[in-house]
Amino acid sequence: MEPRNTSRVSEFILLGIPFLYDLHRVFFVVALFMYLVTILGNGFILIIVAIEPRLHTPMYIFLSNLAFLEICYTSTGVPKLLQTFIQTKTTICFHCCLTQGFLHNCLGSTELFILTAMAFDRYLAICKPLQYPVMMSRHVCLQMTLATWYAAFVIIFFIYLIIWRLPFCGSNVVDSYFCDLGPLLSLACVDTRFVESFILLNAFVIIIMTLVLTILSYVFIIATILRIPSAVGRKKAFSTCASHLVVVSILYGTLVFMFVRPNIHSSNRVTRTVAVLNTTLIPMLNPFIYTIRNAEVKRAVQNIIHKRKGILNGDNDWYNSSRTLKGSRNMMKFRKWWHR
Q1: Among the residues of 128-268, which ranges form H helices?
Q2: Model confidence at 243: pLDDT above 60
Q3: How many helices (H) and strands (E) does the chain have?
C-alpha cells in the first residue's frame, strides 16, 4: 500500500491518559512520588551492593543490574507521563519518540532476561550447591549479565529499524503517554500487518521463552526443597528465592495481559492502567520486595552503620588524645618557665 501523502511527520503529540484529566493534579503528585521512591529505592540497592564486599556475589550482581534497569526503565516513560498531567499539549520529536520507544522496550526485554538469569542462579544455588561456586563464578555471572543486555538490544534494534523506515504522514497524535508500539504503528501511512505480526512474534518468543525457563527452574527448585528433611532447611532454602518469585509473578502477569493479545492496536482503560502500573508501581515495589525480609541486606546495612560509627569514634579518640598530648606539652613548658 502506498503512502497517503508525501508530507512526513516531524513530531508527535502525546495524548496521555484522557480519562484521568479531571484528577490530573492528584495523579501528578502520586506519579511523582512513586517515581522518586523508585529512584531512591533502587539507588539504595546499587549503593549497598557497591560498598559492601559481602554482597559481591552473583545473586546481588544480578540484583544490582535489575535495580539499574528499573531506574532507567521508569525514567523512559514517567517524565513524559508527568508532563501530560501538567500540559494540555505534550509534543515529542520524531527521532526522540522512536528513541524513547526503543529504550523502553529494550530495557523491558533486558529485565525479563535478567530475571531468568536470576532464576537460573537460584536453581544452581539450591539444586547444585557443591558445583555452584564453579558453575556460577563471578566471570560467568558477568558474561550472563552482558549477554542479557546484548540479546535484548539486538532483538529490539531490528524491530525499531523496521519502524524507523515506515512513513508517518497522517495524524501525529499518539494515543498514549509515551511512544508505545501499538499507538505508533496505527499512525503509519502503509499497511503494518507484517510489522505487527513480527512484533507479536518477538514479544511472544521473549515473554514465553523466559517464562518457561523461569518456571522450569522453579519446578526443580521446589522439588529439591521438598526433599530437604528439616523444616528449618526448607524454610531457609525457600526464603532465598521467595522475593524473586513474587516479582516474577507480578511482572509476567501484567506483561501477558498487555502484550500477548490478538490486536496490537487494542487500547482501553484497563490496558492503559495496567501499562501505567507496569511503568510506575512495579519498579517502585521491587526494592521493598527484595530488601525488607532480606537478612543479608539488613546485615550489610548494619555493618555500614557500625563502620561509620567506628570511624567517627576513631576521629573523636584521635581528637581527644591530641588535645591531651598538647595539654601535657604546655604543662611541661610552664614548669620550665616557673623553675627559671
Answers
A1: 132-135, 138-164, 181-185, 193-226, 231-259
A2: yes
A3: 10, 3
CA atoms within 13 A on the CB side of 63: 31
pLDDT of 295 above 50 = yes
SS3 203: helix
Contact 13, 174 (CB under 8 A): yes
Whole-number Å distance between alpha carbons of 176 and 275: 10
The string of pLDDT tens digits covering residues 73-128 is: 999 989 988 888 888 788 899 889 999 999 999 999 999 999 999 999 999 999 99
* Nine cell digits for residue 6: 508525501
In terms of C-beta distances under 8 Å and separation of at least 24 residues, what long-range contacts does 88-93 make, across chains too?
89/13, 90/13, 90/14, 90/16, 91/11, 91/12, 91/13, 91/14, 92/11, 92/12, 92/14, 92/179, 93/10, 93/11, 93/12
Pairing of strands 90-93, 173-174: unpaired
Cα–Cα distance measured from residue 77 to residue 62, given in angstroms and rounded to the nearest whole number? 23
How confident is residue 277, by pLDDT bands cut at 50, 70 and 90?
confident
CA distances from residue 93 to 9, 105, 164, 221 in whole angstroms, order as listed: 9, 18, 13, 48
